[in-house]
Each structure stands twice: as C-alpha cells, then as structure tokens.
Amino acid sequence: MRDLVGDLILVRLQEESDILLHKRLYNALRRSILDGSLPPHGRLPASRDLASELNISRNTVLTVYEQLMTEGYVASRQGSGTFVEKTLPDRFTSASTIGESGADPVPEVSISRRGQHLLSQVSASPRQWGAFIPGVPDVNAFPHPLFSKIQARISRRPKPERLSYSCNGGTPELQHALVDYLRVSRGVNCQVDQILITEGIHQAIDLVTRMLCDRGDLAWIEEPSYWGIRHVLTMNDVRITPLAVDANGLCPPEAIAEAPRLIFVTPSHQYPLGAVMSLERRQRLLALARQHGSWIIEDDYDSEFRFSGQPIPALQGLVAEAPVVYIGTFSKTLYPGLRLGYVVLPRPLVNDLKTAHAELYRGGHSLIQQALAEFITAGHYSAHIRRMRLLYGRRRAFLTELIARYCGPQALSDFSDNAGLHLILNLPDETDDVAIAQRANARNILVRPLSRYYLTGQRKKGLLMGFASLPESEMEAAFAVLLECMPEAKKQNAPA
Asked: Are 197 and 330 in contact (CB under 8 A)?
C-alpha cells in the first residue's frame, strides 16, 4: 500500500506548479488527504522510504510531515509511523468543499439508444439470495471442502499454460469430461473439439448472435421467454419475433413470410412456464431450420432437475448433424458465481466461433476448469446432482402443497411437469403481479412477476417462485409474508 502512496504522491507532485519543492510536496499530500486518496487512519510511507521513492532529500519530507502534523492533518505514533487523522481541520475542509463546488460541472453522459432501451428494461434483481428467488440453487449444499481440496492440489504446481489466456475453447480435461457426461445424461452427440467453455449462458448467446447475425436479421424467441436473451439480441440489433408457447412447447407458424436466422428454444423445460416440447414439435422445428437455413439455439439451462418420469433427451441429439447450437451451464447444478457454461458447436461453426471467442472474450479460469473436470470424472458431479434432486424434489412438493392449500389448486402452474427449480403461482388476469412482486421484494420475498417475461400484450399474470435455496422449515413463514403482499389474489385460509 505504501508503494502505491509513493506513486500517488509522485503523480500529484507533477501537477503542482510551486517553485519550492517542499511546498509542492505539502500541497500534494494535503490534497490527497482532503480528497480521500489518503483515507483516515491510512499510514503514510516512512520519511526515508518516501524520500527514496521521490528521489528527494529526507529532510524535505520530514519538514512537510511536521507541517501537516502541526495543522492537524496527520499524527505520529511512536514506533508505528505517521497516520492520517480521522477528523480533519474544519477551515481546510470547508475551503476544499467550496473549491470543489465551484469546479466545472460534469458533462452529461450520452448513452446509445440501445443502451437506453436496456436500462429501461432492467430485470436482473439487485439481490440474488433469499426466500423464493427463482433459478438459484442451494449453494450451501455444494461440497465446497471437497472441491476446494481438488483446487488446492491443482494450484500447488500449475502449468504455465494454465495461467495464461485460453485460445482453444477451454481446458482439454473439461472438454473431454463434458463429452462423456452430455452423451450419457442428455443424449448429446459431439466430439471434444466441438465443446466451447464460456462464462455462462449470456456470453454464449452474445457470441452466437454476433457471429451468426447481421444487423436487422430476424430471431424467433419463445413467448414468454427469458429476459436475458431479449436483451442480448436487442443490443446486437437483431429483430425479435415472439412465438407463443403451449403445453407442447414453442408453436412454429404454419406459413413463414421471413425465415429467422436464429430460433431460441428451451425444449426440455420451457422458461418460465415449464412446458416440455413434444417430439412432433422437435422434429418439425429441426425440419424447418434445415429447410430455411436457420440455426436453433437450444438453451438446456436446468434439465438435470427432473423429479419424476423419464429424462427428456436434448434436441441436439435427435438427428445427425442437427442445425443446433446446444448451450448449458453449471450455474444451476453447482452455483452461479462459478460463471462457467458450455456450448456444443455444430461442426461447420467450430473453428470460426472458437476463434471469435478468443478474440472477443479472452478465455481463462483454466485452473477452475481443470478442477471441475476432475470433479466430474471422479463421479462427484453426478453424485451431487442425485443428492440435489432428492432435496429439491422435497422442497418442490412442500411448496406445491402450500400453494394448493392457501391459494387453491387453480393457482398451480398450467404446465407443471415436475421439473426445474421454480414454480409459477397463477394469479387472476386482473391482478397486478408487478406490484405484488415489488411489495414482496421490499419484505425480502424475492418472487418475480410472470407478466414481465412477455413481449406482447397477451400476458398471463403470476409469480415465479424458486424453491431450491429455501429449506422447508423456513418456507411456510416466507409464504405467509407473500400472502400478505397479495390481497388482490383469492386466497383460501391464510396460515397462522
């Protein structure tokens, strides 16, 4: 820290114009104290050290330190050093404030139209942990000690290439581990070189959109859909057409006036409604994409958590050489702060998109990727998912029972397929779900309004309620608070 102080004072000295060196040094130190660059209780460099760093006489530094002590800016503690005082002299602080208020006004910032649109549609919650937060797993249930041991061992003697930029789409160990895991668990057909490691789904969508779309190209998305996809498309000047979702998933139009460049779908567990795309719809969508030269972007965000019935295989593996870009993430299975996702690239896109990823984002996190690869290949990942399925299954059942008991069975999700990490509490059409969510959020109940996930005027009303991160012992009390926030909705018997 003291070396940094020396750098700061050296810069400030060059900004001072007084002929006398000791006055320039005094002004530089005083100004740094007044503007907070040298904070209260912060230690100044020893006079000998600062003199050496500034290449000036130590007597000059001592003279300035003594002047600052006399005026009450700093204090000397025997055997400890010289420190900035907590309370500064009033007359100098007032003068500083007057000077600052008379400074030139900060110029008004000009944000692009795309940026203004993004800021007007902000959907990411400033809080990402609390009762009923959707899409967040129980991060406390992750085996942190085990994963930390793997990381520590790998970090003891890391190879130099693991500490530099990654230009190959990720570490080979994690790419190999994902090929085996995805083939067995999701029916994905791919080779090692088709795996690209990203910092989550947002980066993957941004890369695909930038590389496959020109300005003004058309993309189909689900209605309703994840807000993150819409924001990325808009920021890349891609036009959006929302297509309705029913119990069988996205509904492709019978007649196509303009072929889309990209088709975004969540076929295994539609977000946010929860529908599973039928086999007939999947086959139809694949045929349509091939016929019109479109790319399907399959977002398989939480397919690991299905609590009954047979697993739903990925759309990517239904036919050979499918025109599908498959995207997955570890945010739901492990924890969001890991910021690791992956893309299975169709063979024609492998070289171009991996090169673009290295140019745009400069891949890294190689040591964590290597640790995660070992976590997967040793069987810890599959074991963790099995444990979480049991845990989340119990919590889902508990929340389902609460909704049915206090709001009636009609309040349960229309497309309840017993999967995912959230439920939808249906509300009457005349209900203001945005206002309910705002009231609940103010009381630390972090539900989200379903209507905000729609683009068109035909918006269903409801609340997205996550259950993964909330123990059953805390769920009923939190649900009681939520009921107090929704007087417009019809409730059965409120909990005591």
From this structure: no
Q: What is the pLDDT of residue 89?
A: 66
Cβ atoms of residues 452 and 121 within 8 Å: no
Nearest CA-CA partner of 329 in 226, 420, 200: 200
Residue 414 half-sphere exposure toward CB, CA atoms < 13 A: 16
**Angle, CA of 414, 416 and 420, to the nearest 5°:** 130
Cβ contact 307:315 at 8 Å: no
Q: 353: number of CA atoms within 13 Å, CB side?
A: 28
Lowest mean pLDDT among 11-15, 60-64, 152-156, 400-404: 11-15
Cα dihedral 18, 19, 25, 26 sign: negative
Phi/psi of residue 61, each to 5°? -65, -45
Residue 91 confidence (pLDDT): 47
Q: How confident is the model at residue 99 (pLDDT cuts 50, 70, 90)?
A: very low
pLDDT at 94: 47
Go through the domains of the chain in sequence order and give each one's CATH number.
4-93 (1.10.10.10), 158-378 (3.40.640.10)
* Rounded distance between C-alpha atoms, residue 28 and residue 43, angstroms: 16
Q: Are 29 and 85 in contact (CB under 8 A)?
A: no
pLDDT digits (tens, 9 = 90+) for 302-348: 888 887 767 778 999 999 999 999 999 999 999 988 899 999 999 99
